[in-house]
Amino acid sequence: MKSEGTTTTASRNAKEILTQFTREVWSEGDVEASDRYIAPRYTILHDPGDPWEGRELDLAGYKERVRALRAAFPDQVFDIQGLFADGDAVVMTWLWSATHKGDIPGFPATGKRITMSGATVYFFEGDRLAGHWQITDRLGVYQQLQEAQAGGLKR
Hints:
Blueprint: H1 4-27, E1 38-46, E2 56-57, H2 59-71, E3 77-86, E4 89-99, E5 113-125, E6 128-136, H3 138-149
């Protein structure tokens, strides 16, 4: 059984790892940095609207996912709002913003700024990320893309 001090230290380390991972891989686009953070098998347990939902990815598959999701929004930035650790999991609440610079199905690039919020539970195996369970405001993104495509962004 872990002592309270060990649990607190492990939680703090997991939060630091997750913060660095989010900044380097997702916000700065350093896909190769995934090597330092992702476990050999990464499972997307729940992420409605994500084409990879329910899939187990190896490191190469994870990197391809990052590249594909960043393609239309290459300047995306995650602003971490909160981190909450429990055992081998860390919950991250976040705000996301990006410029729609690349085409996605049904939406040619608009050059408009898009925002979204969400919460992700990341699961750790040691000091590596092994999967996530996520909810996001994809409906809000869709609505912003529709508005941008129509010629204006109300937000």
